Structure prediction request, 456 residues.
Amino acid sequence: MKTESWLQCIIPSCGKKYPITERRTACDCGELLDVRYNGTFPKSLQKTFSERLSHGQNIFNESGVWRYRELLNFAGVDTENPSDCSKKLVSLDGAEGRTKPFHLTRVADYVGLKTANFWLQFEGDNPTGSFKDNGMASAFTHARMVGAKKVVCASTGNTSSSAAAFAANELDMQAVILVGEGKIAKGKLAQSLAYGAKVLQVRGDFDVAMAMVQALSKESSIYVVNSLNCFRLEGQKTMMFRILDYLRWHVPDWIVFPGGNLGNTSAFGKAFMELYEYGWIKKKPRMAVVVAEGAPTLSDLYNEHELRWNNGNIDNTIIDDYYSEVDRKGIKAKTRASAIEILKPVNLKKAIRTLEFTDGVVTTVSDEAIMDSMAMVSKNGFGCEPASAATVAGTKKLVEQGIIGADDSVVGIATGHILKDVTAIVDYHFNPKNRFANTPITVEPDVKEILKLADS
Ligand code: F0G
Prediction:
């Protein structure tokens, strides 16, 4: 089965196309690009995907990204031949994307949904502890296609960890990472250093570092692995394929997840647009994007300024005016969920497109609600980092508001691992004022005293 692929401007009135082998993160007109496909995508592939699950020894079947390779076949692989695959597809030995949705009774109760209708998919179970590994597998595949030797990204810590690991696992590849000085959680900084990336701490926050990468992408041939690179988003589509595969291709009513640079919002929407076009699904799940109160751009623009995709005829003045105001007032993003501390998301327009296609909603949550939700996920024996807990906090808020119905089916994405930001967890539990604090008790080395406390 031959699939043709190319790059194309997302704005229909432009629609300019470029060869798939180009290294570019924007159309000549300045807008974002999509990877587009022409081929046959029969529903029988669903059976192939599930059969691959039980065939070990082929890392491209074990990989939760490449198991779905026909739906992101920009590298043009001979789909059943592992050695052909390994020449073209980049994988952490099949380890990326091995996730699936789980039921969590306590969390379901907390958010006000029935256990049977509520799942969380823990993307923190990826090899570097976040969902980014899904997208890095596909971005590095394209980097290899175009012969790149150096990759660069700006990051709040997870993109950088993932990029550093994938670069370390490739032959002859160096990662250069820009992070806001003091802005990323220690676990993530530790990973980026340990995997051997060149780490540049920029004086500024993520938005400043991202602006640097955008400028760099115009001036050098360094390969950008931020989600501005549309090949990243191809791998991130597979998070949705895994949900559907697990639910036997029944579409849930809602998908809930945190929004930062809005790569997931874009990728998830594209996954469903394509499946809809291929006739695999009749119903569209509604997307609920949850942003932090201290990083509210998408909510402000979508809910208050009513920014709409409108078939690609976006009113750019709404965006320009908003950012002028942000710059004039010197406003910076601020949230304890450092992964989503972003005020100028690069995928804004694709996210708006997703919201239109899926009749989506955007909501904001406070840091307090995020931290309580994070604690609640752990009270269920699972775990995630603060940004991921925005999913739970957002679901709870939307259920309370009656936007998500009490009988609706909801799959939430928990984007990063519990150990990414241990400082946040320890700080939370050491403060007994927090709702679910489990504050440790200091005790003298006295058996009787310890027994008394253990029994109390
Ligand atoms: N959750 C976590 C744990 C993240 O690391 C990120 C983004 C998001 C949610 C938001 O996802 O950007 O697709 O909307 N982290 C990026 C990084 C920005 O650099 O690691 P998004």
Observations:
- The pocket of F0G is lined by residues 130, 155-159, 227, 258-265, 339-340, 385, 387-388, 415-416 (CB under 6 Å).
- The mean pLDDT is 96.
- The first strand starts at residue 4 and ends at 9.
